[in-house]
Design brief:
Number of helices: 32
Helix content: 40-55%
Distance between the termini: 89 Å
Strand content: 5-15%
Shape: elongated
Strand order of the largest sheet: 2-3-4-1-5
Radius of gyration: 39 Å
Largest sheet: 5 strands, parallel
Number of strands: 8
Structural class: alpha/beta
Amino acid sequence: MSYQVLARKWRPRTFHELVGQEHVQRALVNALDQGRLHHAYLFTGTRGVGKTTLARILAKCLNCTAGGRGDEGVTSTPCGECDSCRAIDEGRFVDLIEVDAASRTKVEDTRELLDNVQYAPTQGRYKVYLIDEVHMLSTSSFNALLKTLEEPPPHVKFLLATTDPQKLPPTVLSRCLQFTLKHMPPERIVEHLARVLEAESVPFEESALWLLGRAAEGSMRDAMSLTDQAIAFGQGRVEHADVAAMLGTLDQRHVLALVEALAEVDAARLLAEVANLAERAPDFAGVLDEVTAVLHRLAIAQMVPEALDNAQGDREALLALASRFTAEDVQLYYQIGIQGRGDMASAPDLRTALEMTLLRMLAFRPQGVPRPATTPLPLRAAPGEGGSTPSAGQSEGLAAGGAPPSGASTEPAPESSSREPSPPSEPPAEPVAPPPWVEADPAPESGPATSSPPEPEPAASRPPTPPVDAAPLEPSAAVEDTPPPDSSSADQAAAPDAAEPEPAAVSNAADGRFSHADWLAGFEALGLGGLTRNLAAGCVVEEDDGERLKLRLDPTLSAMRAEIHIERMQQALAEHGVPRRLVVEEGEIPSSLETPRQQAERLAAQRHAAAVEALGSDPHVQQLQQAFGARLIESTVKPAGDLH
């Protein structure tokens, strides 16, 4: 007997043997069991997903005689042993009329087909018309089919199959029950191929089946045909190297070498790997596709490690690689790879396009992280990374009397002098009715700013609301403080005693110790910005021995730890009187300590709560609430000190 290809030998003969398409299987089985049979079914989907197979199984279910020859014999589990089942399996059932619409497109062919519809079935219970590639019929053929398709004789069933349902007229679609068959995922294909090869006693490697599953592109028939070819190519074995050579795919080890070079930020190694690939004359566009596919899997490994498949037998290697990239780098590299794939058509040659795309990944990599950090998996969003941190930190620095006010004192000086005439006119501003909600604004500020020197600075640092801010202040104190702004600034320049953080730093330097309280008080004075500020804001002081200052970093910010940021922090500390060799190590932050970011957020929350409370107790606001049913939206409330 001649050899039968795997695709035909392993064609499912019952619904329970069907691989995939559970949604179609469930609907048809329930309809058969309940006797709710439609007269026309339309199966759509790409090639090799089971359209014709489903139609033949349905024809067997309709004509199986194991349960009787009447309508009660219709079943969802055909026996496969009766004359009708065997005839359908062998392709010789008289009442199953299979029509290839691609070769019978004329209206005359359709009319000839429909002339026999009125006659009763010869052998089976139903006469089944299976029209494959029905979208190839002409418009006249569809028109000739419409009436019979809508009201066929009770002994006739129409089973239509097509790969392009968009070409079918809406009048045909409305007369059929349509079932859309899905693409087969590689996992399902690999599982089925493994079962078939085990039954055929063919040795195989799982990674080779993954190559076949992806090459099939969702078609089970293509996968079975490729498996036949692989068995012949490998002399009765299905091995990874043979399948890769047969398909012309790239060895995954070369792709992983390229990704490792990206992880090491090693441009020389990257070009060397491309040169090594060029000796094998690969498809460089395919190489870039493989690199982007690996980057996609790295992103999955970072976010949901348990969802990473073992498609190439490289799951452990990818998990190790994923910890060497930051999530931002993976997303950036993927985007550059996708764009570079589209630019290949305009490049001088494909190798140049590949090299430029890979080098572009390194060139546009964020320079703030010069060396890749080890990222714990799975990634979690860093808590508390709000945009309010800088403003809160600035206000905290103002309250603590940090160095920024000294720089800002040159600006408020003319403003305060320009506002000198306003204090005398403030007694008329005694109508206490307008400013009650502002009265609470200086209250929280008066807490941290109990000493007289910092008081004029917050008042002068709010030019947008001079009359409102000046009203709650004591007129005598305001008049007293405003005349000598130049002298106070001169005092600050001449005597560093006027600025609180600087004497603290000097005294600490004398003691040889820099405490965490000093770190919080003088954080704003360091003048850090960008990623360096974000990194420093997540640190606490662990110990200081006079020569080495050790900071503990929140583990959620480990991706930002880089030498360039540590050097900037060390230089800023030295400029403010704390010359130390700075060491930053990751570790859990004790609950008894708070980082500068946490302190800024806490102070911002306190100011916001005070502002909300002040507005809630304001009689004007209460009058609006009572008269108009107004509601205070707390999220829109911003303390006056944070408006700038």
